[in-house]
Design a protein that fits this description.
Radius of gyration: 37 Å
Number of domains: 5
Distance between the termini: 72 Å
Shape: extended
Strand order of the largest sheet: 1-3-2-8-6
Strand content: 15-25%
Number of strands: 34
Low-confidence stretches: none
Number of helices: 17
Structural class: alpha+beta
Oligomer: single chain
Mean pLDDT: 87
Length: 782
């Protein structure tokens, strides 16, 4: 890449990509242009990372990985190894042959077996409008960001010096077979887990920066790069150190100013606006002409004896670690700023800087024309985002004005004002009065910032007035020369007293203090919380690999040590006094099922509403001596059917986390409060509670197959399923995640992940039951 752009504006590349297909995880139910994909890490690599699966070197030093006719070139022998070890089964979606191959052909010190490949069912092929391809520089840039757990693979064909090469298989190379779906071998660019130790990390472009705008005009575009001084943190546009860098603009040092306005090799202090090379004006991205502009490419410009400057200026962690880690752990190097001005001819989305906008309160005009919602624009009222969908309005050049009503904080804080005024006429001359007012504000939250504190203030006071006629005062005035008054003089005395008694709402007091508490920085409410208490998102797990040797088994022994683990939430209806359910008070008072007040965990926390808050709980009931689901063990049983050695057993559940970028969210720990599980049996031996975060196997019944109940045939045609040691699995994956609409079909599909109803289970596992019967008493055998 660096060599191809060494002579900007000329691109020195003999490579031209002529065809490409880009595949990613399908998050929709749309099956148009979808295929089953197998992404391979070392496909097309002349120096494969996993040398146990592919030998280094091949018939082509260039990327080549396609075994079709007319393409004899191969970068390595990975495809030959797959053909020799797994054969045609490696192509079948229903086969687990690829996983088994990499399980035995792997370098454990470098990578896990699952790092070598990724299988995608119903992968979605991107249209050419969803990404940008530079055919000479050999990169693609997606028009939208991928989620952390989404996969990206490609198949491409290119020419080099007149010779055609291909990496991966196109959808046209392998015909669609509805009865036996086959996978396409493609080049894996991004796996579900982003690991900086894998070669896919080096394939990610880390020299492209988004400006957050679209259709940028070159006329008014100005860009500058500055660096914050190490001592003063003042922005510096010019380098002050280094024999080769001193007095040069950072814009030129980093490769964005090599040309003048006539495209001659003469820096002029302005950004080189080269479409597709330094900028993608349609998507609003700037691109450095080097792979690591702030890393190794900057380090090469320092002399060998300038190692101290190298350590101060070169931001290598930005390319060695994920962005969040580089920012948090190396702030002393994070000193570069990209700034500028631009005019954009079309931005289709606008943030309204408001949330919970009232429906219909947004008015959009283009010039004097009032636009129509749903036709010209759409509004996300909850997130406060508007999108113009009428491209004619964007390209018309008319100014777009947006008016809205923002009730984000309207009516949120409740205020109460009470007051009274008392007047007493003691005599015609003396009047007394008293006043009292009380103002209280209901806090929005218990943790209020300094300057925004809610108040609970009382002001009280009294006043008096005395008025009387005075003849003496009249006579004194008459003695003044030239004054002779006949009016009666009046003497008045008045006085007032008031006192303000400041206070705070009781909910803001802490630990019994009479004074309220406010916060300079509310770390508690600023934390990101991922709530996992709802049972509906959990399901039983596969055998844990690190603590159970049976995890590697491929037969029924895989589940021999699974004990029963129940997980649930107790419905609040059981605690209502008016319920007709026959639940005794003693049962409701049992520690294992009773309600838990918030003050039991947080004794000094007060409810905003004044009512006691009930904390939702996630209940786990583990029975280490009771056989768990899909445990077909026939030995090591007591005569009542229980398991003899409970200490070797386990029970597990797992769930997915929608938010899994722990680095950017700064997720650092698990917070949970555990009720003593041995309240009634304090002398129990106890057990271990283990948490495992990361990539968890979803193969509950280990067979390498996706067992989906809604994929089971509703017509009883067993030719549409495959038999496994556990039961039945559908040959085809269903598109829609729902049962058949016909109510009678529910009994044929809602049978459990083994695909067997009660009668089928008895028939299939009858021999196993016969082996266990001699050890059981009559009650257990029944």
């Amino acid at each position: 890449y660096n060599s191809a752009l060494r002579n900007i504006p000329i691109i020195s590349s003999n490579i031209n990509i002529t065809k490409i297909e880009v595949w990613t995880t399908n998050r929709t139910n749309n099956t148009t242009d979808s295929r089953d994909i197998m992404g391979l890490l070392d496909l097309g690599e002349n120096a494969p990372f996993n040398t146990a699966a592919a030998t280094q070197g091949g018939t082509s030093p260039l990327p080549a990985g396609f075994s079709g006719p007319g393409f004899p070139q191969q970068s390595n022998n990975l495809l030959g190894q797959l053909q020799a070890n797994v054969g045609p089964n490696g192509k079948l979606t229903s086969s687990n042959a690829i996983a088994e191959f990499f399980g035995t052909h792997n370098v454990p010190a470098k990578l896990n077996p699952t790092d070598n490949f990724m299988k995608l069912t119903y992968a979605r092929k991107l249209t050419d409008k969803e990404y940008t391809l530079h055919s000479q520089l050999g990169y693609i840039s997606l028009n939208y960001p991928l989620n952390n757990d989404e996969v990206l693979t490609v198949a491409y064909q290119y020419t080099y010096n007149g010779q055609t090469y291909q990496v991966g298989e196109f959808s046209s190379d392998i015909a669609v077979d509805a009865n036996a779906p086959k996978m396409l071998y493609t080049k894996l660019l991004k796996n579900e887990l982003l690991k900086t130790s894998l070669p896919t990390w080096d394939l990610m472009m880390k020299n492209i920066y988004s400006l957050g705008a679209f259709q940028i005009s070159p006329t008014d575009f100005r860009l500058r790069i500055a660096r914050l001084d190490n001592k003063t943190s003042v922005e510096q546009l010019v380098a002050t150190d280094g024999a080769n860098l001193k007095d040069k603009l950072w814009l030129s040092i980093l490769g964005l100013d090599n040309l003048n306005q006539q495209n001659d090799r003469q820096p002029d202090g302005y950004f080189d606006f080269l479409e597709g090379v330094t900028i993608d004006s349609q998507q609003g991205r700037i691109m450095f002409p080097t792979i690591e502009p702030f890393g190794e490419d900057l380090a090469r410009q320092f002399l060998p004896d300038e190692s101290l400057l190298d350590s101060q200026y070169v931001y290598r962690p930005l390319y060695d670690f994920q962005k969040t880690i580089a920012q948090q752990n190396y702030p002393n190097l994070n000193r570069y700023l990209i700034k500028g001005t631009y005019s954009s001819q079309g931005g289709s989305e606008f943030l309204l800087n408001a949330v919970n906008i009232p429906q219909g309160s947004v008015v959009v005009t283009a010039g004097t024309l009032v636009l129509t919602e749903g036709t010209d624009y759409t509004v996300d009222y909850s997130a406060g985002r508007i999108r113009i969908i009428n491209q004619a309005m964007l390209s018309s050049g008319q100014p777009i004005n947006i008016k809205l009503e923002n009730n984000e904080l309207f009516g949120v804080q409740q205020k109460s004002l009470f007051g009274t005024r008392l007047d007493y006429l003691a005599s015609p001359k003396l009047a007394l009065g008293a006043t009292m007012m009380h103002l209280t504000e209901q806090p929005i939250s218990q943790n209020e910032a300094v300057g925004d504190e809610s108040i609970s203030n009382t002001i009280w006071g009294f006043d008096g007035t005395y008025t009387s006629n005075s003849r003496l005062l009249t006579r004194l005035v008459d003695k003044i020369p030239l004054i002779n008054t006949k009016e009666i003089s009046t003497v008045s005395f008045s006085g007032e007293f008031a006192q303000l008694i400041p206070g705070t709402p009781g909910v803001l007091t802490y630990a019994g203090s009479k004074n309220g508490t406010s916060y300079l920085d509310d770390f508690e409410n600023s934390k990101s919380v991922i709530d996992v208490k709802s049972y509906i998102n959990w399901q039983i797990s596969g055998t844990p690999q690190e603590i159970q040797p049976d995890a590697g088994a491929t037969d029924l022994s895989y589940g021999f040590k699974r004990a029963r683990l129940a997980y649930y939430n107790i419905d609040p209806i059981f605690y209502n006094n008016g319920t007709s359910l026959n639940v005794s008070r003693a049962q409701l008072s049992n520690h294992y099922v009773r309600q838990v007040l918030e003050t039991e965990v947080f004794p000094y926390r007060q409810s905003v509403t004044g009512q006691p808050l009930i904390m939702p709980t996630f209940n786990l009931s583990y029975y280490p001596m009771v056989r768990g689901q899909y445990n077909y063990r026939t030995t090591g049983l007591n005569n009542d059917g229980t398991l003899q050695n409970p200490r070797e057993n386990w029970g597990g559940i797992f769930r997915k986390l929608e938010t899994n970028d722990f680095e950017s969210l700064n997720v650092g720990y698990i917070e949970f409060w555990l009720m003593d599980p041995f309240i009634y049996k304090p002398n129990s031996q106890g057990g271990d509670l283990l948490f495992n975060l990361g990539s968890i196997s979803e193969d509950i019944l280990k067979d390498g197959r996706k067992s989906l109940e809604n994929g089971l045939p509703v017509d009883g045609d067993f030719s549409k399923v495959d038999e496994t040691i556990w039961g039945r699995v559908p040959k085809l994956q269903p598109v829609i995640n729902a049962f058949d609409n016909n109510p009678s079909s529910r009994a044929l599909q809602d049978v459990g992940i083994d695909g067997l109803n009660d009668a089928d289970e008895k028939n299939k596992f009858a021999p196993i039951l016969q082996q266990a019967l001699p050890q059981l008493n009559a009650q257990a055998a029944a």
